[in-house]
Amino acid sequence: MLHTIIFSFNRALQLDTLVASIIENWQNPQYCIDVIYNTSDQEFQKGYDILIDKYSKYKNIKFNKESGIRDIIGIKELLNIRNFI
Asked: For the whole model, what pTM was predicted?
């Protein structure tokens, strides 16, 4: 199975075009798509809400919204020598 992760920020229309193209052109049904998205305000969120509803019939496509700053790895954690070991 092919597992694809797509990152998206405030671009619901572009994401829709990509996902629709994947559905149309991938002949092998053994794939899973995880969309990780975030928005800067409620107006952009509305576009993603429409896509979530549109693709809800596809069990192999999942939408996950980032939940905020705590999801971002801090630069101190990234560069900590213990994380390289």
From this structure: 0.75
